[in-house]
Amino acid sequence: MAERGLEPSPAAVAALPAEVRAQLAELELELSEGDITQKGYEKKRSKLLSPYIPQIQGIDSTVQKEHKNQTTPSAAPTSTPSKYHRGRSGGARDERYRSDIHTEAVQAALAKHKEQKMALPMPTKRRSTFVQSPADACTPPDTSSASEDEGSLRRQAALSAALQQSLQNAESWINRSIQGSSTSSSASSTLSHGEVKGTTVSLADVFASTRIVPQPDPNQPKPEGRQMTPVKGEPLGVICNWPPALESALQRWGTTQAKCPCLTALDVTGKPVYTLTYGKLWSRSLKLAYTLLNKLGTKNEPVLKPGDRVALVYPNNDPVMFMVAFYGCLLAEVIPVPIEVPLTRKDAGGQQIGFLLGSCGVTLALTSEICLKGLPKTQNGEIVQFKGWPRLKWVVTDSKYLSKSPKDWQPHISPAGTEPAYIEYKTSKEGSVMGVTVSRIAMLSHCQALSQACNYSEGETVVNVLDIKKDAGLWHGIFANVMNKMHTVSVPYSVMKTCPLSWVQRVHTHKAKVALVKCRDLHWAMMAHRDQRDVSLSSLRMLIVTDGANPWSVSSCDAFLSLFQSHGLKPEAICPCATSPEAMTVAIRRPGVPGAPLPGRAILSMNGLSYGVIRVNTEDKNSALTVQDVGHVMPGGMMCIVKPDGLPHLCKTDEIGEICVSSRTGGMMYFGLAGVTKNTFEVIPTNAAGSPIGEVPFVRSGLLGFVGPGSLVFVVGKMDGLQIVSGRRHNADDIVATGLAVESIKTVYRGRIAVFSVSVFYDERIVVVAEQRPDASEEDSFQWMSRVLQAIDSIHQVGVYCLALVPANTLPKTPLGGIHISQTKQHFLEGSLHPCNILMCPHTCVTNLPKPRQKQPVVGPASVMVGNLVAGKRIAQAAGRDLGQIEENDLVRKHQFLAEVLQWRAQATPDHVLFLLLNAKGTTVCTASCLQLHKRAERIAGILYDKGHLNAGDNVVLLYPPGIELIAAFYGCLYAGCIPVTVRPPHAQNLTATLPTVRMIVDVSKAACILTTQTLMRLLKSREAAAAVDVKTWPTIIDTDDLPRKRLPQLYKPPTPEMLAYLDFSVSTTGMLTGVKMSHSAVNALCRAIKLQCELYSSRQIAICLDPYCGLGFALWCLCSVYSGHQSVLIPPMELENNLFLWLSTVNQYKIRDTFCSYSVMELCTKGLGNQVEVLKARGINLSCVRTCVVVAEERPRVSLQHSFSKLFKDIGLSPRAVSTTFGSRVNVAICLQGTSGPDPTTVYVDLKSLRHDRVRLVERGAPQSLLLSESGKILPGVKVVIVNPETKGPVGDSHLGEVWVNSPHTASGYYTIYDNETLQADHFNTRLSFGDATQTLWARTGYLGFVRRTELTAATGERHDALYVVGALDETLELRGLRYHPTDIETSVSRTHRSIAECAVFTWTNLLVVVVELCGCEQEALDLVPLVTNVVLEEHYLIVGVVVVVDPGVIPINSRGEKQRMHLRDSFLADQLDPIYVAYNM
């Protein structure tokens, strides 16, 4: 190809000879259609241009200089029929509309972004994820685009001519250096996407600079004209021989001119296959009418009566059968409802069509034999029941099945009146289908008006390329045709697909006077023009362009004229018209007089249009819209322009409004919808004072426009395509045009782009969806998307919320191949669009977020304390029962140490079994009586003494799977005077992730020795372990599988109960490893509090399905049975993975009253056994014995999971009152536990918005933005709780949010760290209230936010019960926009958005919110989640998501308690170890 430096500019191209320009244009069309490769195109093009290169350089030397520094590779030039543009009368105006306006606009936009050197990260995706579906081989040369108007390419023509050069020349706003990773898998660092060569710019800074908030325009234009007056069309001429009804016209021609041709049908190749004469039409319609009325039922019970509605189901390529059926219905006085042929059970919009048929009471469908055979059938040959359709009886209307009417039978033809003639379906913007009912008089009057406006005369030939079932195709090709005894040649869509030039050939062959087309047909004819040079269009006096109402039609008309003028096409023959289903033909340009000046164009400011004001564009060329007129008002009609929304006030002369028409020719109502009908068909416009301008009702046309000079009507858009964003109006078609103008040829498949708006966060947001070419590269697509965003932003001054590319041929189609917009929107909102590329830009277009909160300076402790009141409220404090007052006749009380209790039990009740360990089959694999446990502990103490040479006070790590071995080792350490540290063993299949934590605890606890099993000992020293940690420096490892029978001479007894008993290490959800010290007195107090709360005695049995390594789980597993003497049935949670029934069947088998589990166990059962309740019943599992089922947790209670669990197992006897939760923290492992007595846990609804402001506001159930919180169980005996402001350390009032502080005898005595940090210790474990506490109690800070609320219930003490509600951990909260968010609230919202989200976690990165979702569906759904996640977080939490990461199930790390490890996840994200399916950076 000619190098980029020699790329001719628009001016230079214009200077080339006409034939070279034509050849260039043809080349580009070939490329756009895929008939030639890029390489072949470049070769041919450079050959064509080579003789002219020096001249081009001469013409455009200035451009050369600019080009020298450009390195951006070229893009394939777009298909540009506007290059055929030749000089015409009114040339200046025409030259002005060569969409240079758009070119300059995009150039300006790119230049602006070039200055900013934007570095935006490209989305990362896994290579395997999005395999493009091959484009359907059978797709037509261009199944149209954007919406039902099938018009994308005319806009492309209008805009792309010179625009593509500007995009090639302007440096892309996406810095090239970051494009290298375009299709790389996630192996390229997640972070590196935000970096620019040479400088490291943090993504957050990039985003900060992206957030250019458009300020409201103080100079917003306002209408200044006078109020418009209604415009009248010429009077409808009275011609004496016009028939009194359309049926009369048919009767007249059918009986007097029987041989005259009426309708010619073509075969698939475009050759005439059958001509229906007027005689045949009359006789066949008559037969059908007779059959419908007399032959379908019995004489007494006819199936059809006059006035009934009947569906007409005929394909577009069978106009003859349709025409006979339509007139047959009219003659039988039944009301035809023409609809599309349903192809599948789930056609786009098919359900709504069914709704229309149902509401019209249709029970009968007429169709042809061929069509009936093609309908989808069930296995037994019946036609399937289409989704949402009423039951239909199908009647075949082929002649051979019809009965000839008797000689004396004549149809009843009365003069046309207001009775319904037919119903035309119309799809609204929302996708609902309504039936526009047209009366017989309107049908007749409309025919008369069309005949007068188009000057139709008898015997003329009309070529009709439109759908004959509705709109202009029906009015001209079926009605006006018969009215004027014309001959219509119908060219169906299927013929156009195979032979785009067929309609031009038909005009040439039949010397047709009139052709009915859409812009699409003009475009196709130009593309196929090279196939046939010898056609003549000189016979045409009217080329009616029926979608002339689309403002972008002007370019197609111009290009078509410039190409076919040499074929005899007269400039004055082009007649755009505007139509709508409600108002029918609104306006049409009358055929002009040869040589008269052509109508002018309006060049309007797009900015003005967005405010609904007409401003001629003079200065700012960057955003202009050129529109052509659609002629004058119809004969006999009257038109006015009213405000599009609200009351129908008349507009001012320089204001855009909805066109309303008053005449006898419009529709009369939406069938069966009285309310909507009134607002559309019975509009009485009012003047500025609000008084009606007359009695005559007007019909709203759904078209937006104005009446210009000389009463010419201009249309600038449709109500259905209107997107109102922040009070400004944008037309979907205009946005599509801009998108197509941006080098779309490489990326967009056949110009198919859909634009619609979705309502997110109190405003409409623009969404652009395009089909991507199968051969488009990631880089091209991303670059195109970025440029489109930029172009739309600059030209329309509106931000695009979401831009998505979907695989070719996957968007839902309308019957004629356009994009079904409302269905596309529905797929987008449901998350079933399956994009292959997506860009979200919420930062730029969501400008209505509330201002970030400014933190107020904290007020000091100046509030007056009166007793227990803070500023008029009771202090938020609560306490369990007083331990001192509880009388116990328990012998355990005399022992201060747990080791002594075990020794005492071994003597007193040696054979009493304390522990049973179960395997996955539910069989007992191991038991331990008091004596067995004592003896085993003695031996372990002996081995520690012998092999380990340990001293009292040394730390020993216990590394065991959950079981009795662990318990024995714990008591062995106590007997030897060592300090046990229980640690979860590493996972053999995942050493790299799990072993470092073990190593860390061993190092931090300064363990002198590790006790473990032989299997684990081998694992610790294995080669695999050596790859993860340093195995040479382990402390002494002792395996306890084969113990010698040797015992210690004497067991150790600590000198004081304050001595350390054990260390409790745990990794918090924020990834912090913390160990706390538990003294002997704390252990004793803890066991005693649990024993009292749960009423545990030696005769009782409890089942535990928990991890035994830290917190309350460890206490229940290892300590409580020895203290209280009850029997514990131990179920290791990992056994549940092999047998989901294990836990519940154990509870049933042993008739357990109290059972303890974790949230992960509860979730496993809820998800895994959800559909197995019948199996549980069959196995005889009954949970009615369960009194308490307690979830052990250190978090806010998961109310929804508890509810699901209770509801699910209610059928097998589980009492909903049984399920409750505990609450503990690092400083105190058991603060609350429901226990057996006391009131049931209470719930409250709080306002989420208030929580973000650190306030509690109680609301009613069902209130918007409400959050259900449950009490975290009852406070344990001996525990006191107070709620404190974490900043001032002063107490807060009842129902106020603050940090939960705790005081109890079983609080841990401090953190265990290598370097004892005294200040942290004092702050967390021994802290005092800053005021209001005369006793100077020492409190421990839990690090959790919560509140206390006094309820109406009575506690065991007889006083009113104080409930503690935990809201969440302080160190997990996210500080965003000055507010405090709890991750779980955002995650709950996200998890609800799509069925394929298995799990979700959020964290912040710099100041961006990152949402990670696990996808459990197929990978093509990955990108559907991005907009849904962004929407829901914006709607419910007022936050803009910065990054959405879609990963495989199981990637989000979860600890044994079922808590998400968000900080681990964050670290993996930053280290690029997630292997994401997709990473989307929201701009």
Question: How is the secondary structure organized here?
Answer:
Layout: H1 10-15, H2 18-33, H3 38-49, H4 53-59, H5 61-68, H6 91-96, H7 100-116, E1 124-125, H8 152-169, H9 203-210, E2 231-232, H10 246-256, E3 261-266, E4 272-277, H11 278-294, E5 309-313, H12 319-332, E6 335-339, H13 350-359, E7 364-367, H14 369-374, E8 393-396, E9 420-427, E10 433-439, H15 440-454, E11 461-464, H16 471-483, E12 487-490, H17 493-498, H18 502-510, E13 514-517, H19 519-527, E14 542-545, H20 553-564, E15 574-580, E16 584-588, E17 601-605, H21 606-610, E18 624-628, E19 632-633, E20 638-642, E21 657-662, E22 669-670, H22 674-681, E23 699-707, E24 713-718, E25 722-725, E26 728-731, H23 732-741, E27 748-759, E28 764-772, H24 778-796, E29 800-807, H25 821-830, E30 837-840, H26 842-845, E31 865-866, E32 869-870, E33 873-874, E34 877-879, H27 898-908, E35 913-918, E36 924-929, H28 930-946, E37 955-959, H29 964-976, E38 979-983, H30 991-1004, E39 1009-1012, H31 1014-1020, H32 1023-1028, E40 1036-1039, E41 1060-1067, E42 1073-1079, H33 1080-1094, E43 1101-1105, H34 1111-1124, E44 1127-1130, H35 1142-1149, E45 1154-1157, ...
Parallel strand pairs: 3-12, 5-6, 5-7, 7-8, 11-12, 11-13, 13-14, 14-15, 28-29, 35-44, 37-38, 37-39, 39-40, 43-44, 43-45, 45-46, 46-47, 59-60
Antiparallel strand pairs: 1-61, 2-20, 3-4, 9-10, 10-22, 15-16, 16-19, 17-18, 20-21, 21-23, 23-24, 25-26, 27-28, 29-30, 31-32, 32-33, 34-51, 35-36, 41-42, 42-53, 48-49, 48-50, 51-52, 52-54, 54-55, 56-57, 58-59, 60-61
